[in-house]
Write a sequence for this structure.
């Protein structure tokens, strides 16, 4: 068994005093892709932002370990330098920093940056302010491009394909496959991650390892990602919810 | 001659004594003594005002034609001098000077009061890039730089005037500048001040005639204990005149007043102004005063102003890519100050880029 990349253990997260996530558990090994489904506003983004250490998310109990070490005390940039990379669903506009300036600051080879940008159709955007006036599709591409340059071991992708057209979707899926080293034999893959999605379109090619349904800050069911996705597509989150309610009642009953 | 230490200082403000960077003409004044006045171009005169007043008496008629000697105590002080030092620059009709001309005002003696009167004339259809560097010989210098400058951009002429200020924490600076842009002429001013200074106040006025253009860009990084009152005024006097004022201000433990006034006074005139400021701490003050004045119905004037701290979400975003908070902040500030200036020769843009780079590395932000 390979050492896990990420272990999320009984993670409970709040903003101020308002609880957002409760007792979340999941473990990602190298080469694995875990997919989190759930209705809007249910805590999916909060989960990956809390793993990244972004404010205003506050871990009130539980632990997050990266390669066996707790990272809860580390600032965002140290988590990034360890090898954690996040693609934002809606990245903020940073008007005064271009991708090319960011690349220089990070010590990324200039020609590598322009080659990667050109391949992803963002060659004309590298001298513009980050996300400043970018369309939805351009924002998604820019996020993945930054991850390509960063080469993280653990990928946290927040709705990487939402709101993009069919052509862009193809391109984005190909990039995500590259990020997850889908061109390598399984045992040579070192990158793993979590994808938050509600469309599931990325699943067709990626063969994700495990799927979860997150509702009201709790994982209410988990299983084979495509099974879960099919169920959600047919019946919404209803089945999962019913199952969870039964489990909860049984639990209460057994507790007396 | 200047010492080797001064040479280093002068290169910082774009004045190259080594000849490595091609320059069409050079002028260097130390306190009120002219050290260098030389031009390599037949059509470009670069001289001291004291000599010019003797050689070309008509220049005397230009003095005080754009700046009122009664404007304030500093203009009165310059007017009270019988024969003040200064720089005279003259470009002959139709001459397009290929390499930039450079001038430098050096404050060398401690507690000195440098009083100057400069005249710049571009005859019709001529073109010049001018870089002026103003600096104090030593960081601990105290002194005053008081300069009246009158600039005449004749019909169809183009002047880009890049001014770099690198003073010392004890220096007071009072430039008083008037510009006239004749029909179809262009005046483009870039003002860069990124180091500590006790006091700078300057608010040049450009009067733009028909079809002419005036633009003021200022890039200011006000560091601890500095006071800046920096602005630009453009009077769009002739039909079809254009004006633009762009200012970028970063303030740390300092006070900045960033002024701008565009007046539209004729048909088809257009003016736009942008005043943006970043506050780095709670001891900084940025007071942006963008003003538009329309005195004719067919004028189009607009402005935008934004002042505030760097948004936390921007810092966090850059931190997710692996930059520390300080690195992220510096990157944003550098980008904010990096105004690409249209029509500026690469060698002058390089001076500005280097200054910004130095301002970012010299002190912790």
């Amino acid at each position: 068994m390979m050492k896990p990349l990420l272990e999320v253990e009984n993670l409970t997260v709040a903003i101020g005093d308002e609880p957002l996530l409760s007792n979340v558990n999941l473990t990602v090994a190298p080469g694995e892709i875990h997919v989190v489904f759930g209705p809007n506003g249910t805590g999916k983004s909060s989960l990956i932002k809390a793993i990244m250490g972004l404010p205003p998310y506050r871990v009130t109990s539980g632990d997050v370990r990266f390669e066996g070490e707790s990272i809860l005390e580390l600032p965002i940039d140290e988590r990034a330098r360890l090898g954690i990379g996040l693609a934002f669903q809606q990245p903020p506009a940073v008007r005064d920093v271009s991708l090319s300036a960011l690349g220089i600051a990070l010590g990324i080879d200039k020609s590598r940056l322009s080659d990667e940008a050109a391949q992803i159709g963002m060659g004309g955007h590298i001298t513009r302010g980050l996300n400043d006036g970018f369309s939805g599709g351009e924002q998604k591409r820019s996020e993945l491009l930054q991850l390509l340059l960063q080469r993280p071991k653990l990928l946290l992708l927040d709705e990487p394909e939402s709101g993009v057209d069919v052509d862009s979707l193809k391109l984005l899926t190909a990039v995500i496959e590259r990020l997850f080293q889908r061109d390598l034999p399984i045992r040579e893959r070192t990158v793993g991650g979590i994808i938050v999605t509600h469309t599931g379109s990325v699943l067709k090619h990626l063969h994700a390892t495990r799927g979860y349904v997150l509702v009201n800050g709790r994982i209410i069911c988990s299983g084979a990602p495509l099974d879960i996705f099919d169920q959600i597509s047919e019946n919404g989150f209803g089945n999962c919810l019913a199952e969870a309610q039964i489990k909860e009642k049984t639990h209460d009953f057994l507790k007396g | 001659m200047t010492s080797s230490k001064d040479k280093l200082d002068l290169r910082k403000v774009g004045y190259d004594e080594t000849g490595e960077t091609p320059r069409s003409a050079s002028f260097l004044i130390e306190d009120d003594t002219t050290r260098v006045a030389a031009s390599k171009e037949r059509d470009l005169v670069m001289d001291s005002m004291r000599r010019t007043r003797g050689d070309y008496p008509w220049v005397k008629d230009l003095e005080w034609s754009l700046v009122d000697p009664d404007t304030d105590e500093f203009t009165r002080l310059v007017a009270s001098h019988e024969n003040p030092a200064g720089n005279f620059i003259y470009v002959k009709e139709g001459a397009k000077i290929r390499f930039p001309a450079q001038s430098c005002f050096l404050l060398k003696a401690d507690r000195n009061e440098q009083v100057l009167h400069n005249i710049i004339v571009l005859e019709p259809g001529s073109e010049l890039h001018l870089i002026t560097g103003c600096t104090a010989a030593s960081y601990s210098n105290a002194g005053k730089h008081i300069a009246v400058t009158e600039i005449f951009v004749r019909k169809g002429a183009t002047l880009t005037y890049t001014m770099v200020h690198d003073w010392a924490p004890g220096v007071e600076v009072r430039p008083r500048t008037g510009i006239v842009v004749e029909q179809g002429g262009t005046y483009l001013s870039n003002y860069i001040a990124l180091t500590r200074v006790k006091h700078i106040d300057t608010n040049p006025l450009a009067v733009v005639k028909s079809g002419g253009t005036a633009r003021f860009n200022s890039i200011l990084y006000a560091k601890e204990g500095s006071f800046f009152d920096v602005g630009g005024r453009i009077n769009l006097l002739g039909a079809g005149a254009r004006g633009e004022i762009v200012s970028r201000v970063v303030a740390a433990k300092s006070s900045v007043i960033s002024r701008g006034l565009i007046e539209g006074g004729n048909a088809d005139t257009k003016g736009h102004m942008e005043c943006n400021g970043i506050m780095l701490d709670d001891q900084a003050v940025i007071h942006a005063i963008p003003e538009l004045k329309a005195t004719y119905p067919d004028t189009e004037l607009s402005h935008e102003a934004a002042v505030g701290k760097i948004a936390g979400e921007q810092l966090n975003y850059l931190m997710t890519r692996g930059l520390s908070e300080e690195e992220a902040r510096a990157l944003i500030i550098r980008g904010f100050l990096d105004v690409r200036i249209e029509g500026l020769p690469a060698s002058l843009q390089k001076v500005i880029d280097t200054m910004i780079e130095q301002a970012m590395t010299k002190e912790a932000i």
Notes: Chain A is about 35% helix and 30% strand. The two ends of chain A are 39 Å apart (CA to CA). Residues 238-255 of chain A form the longest helix (18 residues). Chain A touches chain B at residues 52, 54-55, 75-77, 80-81, 85-86, 88, 91-92, 94-98, 101-102, 105-106, 129-130, 146, 150 (CB under 8 Å).
